[in-house]
Amino acid sequence: MSGESGGTGVGPAVLSLVTGQVKRFLPRLRVGNLDDRDPDAIREMLPGMWLLITAWFRPDVRGLHHIPAKGPALIVGNHTGGILSPEVLISQLAVTSYFGAQRPFYQLAHRMVLNSPLAPMLRKFGTVEADPENGHTVLADGGLLQVFPGGDYEVYRPTSQSALVDFDRRKGFLRLALKHDVPIVPQVTIGGQETALFLARGDNIARFLGLDRTMRIKVLPIVLSAPFGITLPFAPFIPLPAKITISYLPPIDLRATYGEDPDLDKVYDDVVGQMQDVLTALQAERKLPVLG
Fold first, then answer.
1. Start and end of every Phospholipid/glycerol acyltransferase domain (predicted)?
2. What is the tens place of the pLDDT at every residue in 253-283?
3. pLDDT at residue number 132
4. Cβ-defined contacts of 53-58 (< 8 Å, 24+)
5. Angle at 269 between CA 265 and CA 270, to 5 degrees
6. For residue 4, what are the CA distances in angstroms to 1, 9, 19, 40, 215?
7. How far apart are CA 97 and CA 91, in angstroms?
């Protein structure tokens, strides 16, 4: 396949088709406006949204008391469920119910999440694009920030890997926490990979087509979901009503635990290892897929 724009043949035609399809679902958004978060709208929507989410996903949220009661902190979660990522909305509702709508709570999310049908509501609850500037601003202003280091790579992992934490060795969250000297609160979720049948990430295909370089997209997923079966990459779908369980772990003060100049590889292995142990235990509790 020719790497030049003037190339001919099947390769460039396939690349044009795929990138056109991806751009259709991932148009460029402004780099998150933190002012989109609306405490008044949150208070109005919270009861109805909890009722709807409880009926569909039967959320079991544990350990909210581990989140510091005040001041900045970085919540670090494993990502699940494709473009709809149910843990994003569930954690928004849970944390806001626990601490109140006035506490500044923001979530960094991939552009594909912010192009989902839930995007207008997610923005009101504090979801902004996963841009480093947004993360620095939230923590510098004393806010609570939630990140999902695995991004599109983890959120589209195969359903067979539902009980695997996979950040693809991304350590930006550690640098962010160290820069602002804030504690990390691990958040572990299970159930999202049961909302559809995630067959393959398609990361090799995305790399072959150059999507990782041109559009910061690491995957081109193959998903079997309702209502149409095979779902176009990054297209919305109707999630199966899988039970979602979320567990927050005790906060980790990186410098107090690992010293002033910690080895990021060691810290990464320890944090992900703790999360993996909890995820494995949550998987062992589940009796049946979807039913929980």
1. 73-192
2. 999 999 999 999 999 999 999 999 999 999 9
3. 87
4. 53/86, 53/89, 53/90, 53/93, 56/239, 56/241, 57/86, 57/90, 57/191, 57/241, 57/242, 57/243, 57/244, 58/241, 58/243, 58/244, 58/292
5. 120
6. 9, 12, 15, 51, 17
7. 10
Q: How many Cα atoms sit within 13 Å of 274 on the Cβ side?
A: 17
Amino acid at 12: P
User: What band does 129 get if pLDDT is binned at 50, 70 and 90?
Assistant: confident
By three-state DSSP, how is residue 117 classified?
A: coil
67-95 average pLDDT score: 95
- Helix, strand, coil content of the chain in percent (nearest 5): 45, 15, 40
CB of 195 within 8 A of CB of 81? yes
Which tokens is 113 given?
């999440």
CATH class of 11-284: alpha beta
Sequence spans of domains, the chain: 11-284
* Distance (Å) of CA 193 to CA 161, 185, 197, 231: 8, 22, 7, 15
CA dihedral of 46, 47, 52, 54, whole degrees rounded to 10:
100
As given in the structure block, the two tokens for residue 109 are 């999310």
Token reading at 74 = 């970085």
Nearest Cα neighbor of 203 from 217, 192, 219 is 219
150 pairs with which residues across the strands? none
Dist. CA 90–CA 54, nearest whole Å: 9
**Cα separation of 93 and 77, whole Å?**
15
Q: Are 80 and 265 in contact (CB under 8 A)?
A: no
Determine if residue 71 is left, alpha or beta; phi over 0 gives left, psi from -120 to 50 gives alpha, anything else beta.
Answer: left
